[in-house]
Model the fold of this input.
Amino acid sequence: MTGARPQLNVRWVFGNIDEPLRRELVAFWLKEGALPNPDEAWRRSFEVACVLQHEQTRSIAGVCTVAIRLDDHQRSYGFVRIFIRPDSRMVGMNVRLMEKMIEGFTALAREPGGPQRLVATMENRKLERRAGQRILARLGFVHVGVAPNGELVMQRHLVT
Done:
C-alpha cells in the first residue's frame, strides 16, 4: 500500500545493548548526521534508554538517550536526549519514546542511588511553543531555568 504510515514500536533497552544493536545505533547516528563522530556515537550507545523501530524490519527510526550524571549535591539524575529520523517524525512518536523512557526510569528510581529526576534542554525550538509546553507538562516536565546557550531547561521528578 503506497503512502501507508510505517508501524513503529518503542523498545526499552537501557543497560541491555548488545554488540549488534550498538553497531546499528552507531551506523544510524552517523548516517543521519545526528552524531558526526563514530567515537562519540559508540560512547553515546551506552546511554540509550529506548529505541523506536520499524515493526517489520526492526530498523531504527529514533532513539532516546539518558546520560546519568551527578548534580551539585552528588545525587544522580538523567539527562534526556531524543533523535528521530526526519522521515519518521510523525505526530506522537517523541511522546511515545518519552513515555517508555519515563516508565523505565520510574522503576529504576526505586533502586538505591537511582536517578530521582530527569532533565532535558529544549534544542528543538518548536517545543518552546505553547503546544510543546503542554505536551511536556502532560509528561510531568516543568520549566526550571535557561541554559547558558539560551535553551529552556525542563525537569521531571520520578518519585514523590
The first strand starts at residue 8 and ends at 12.
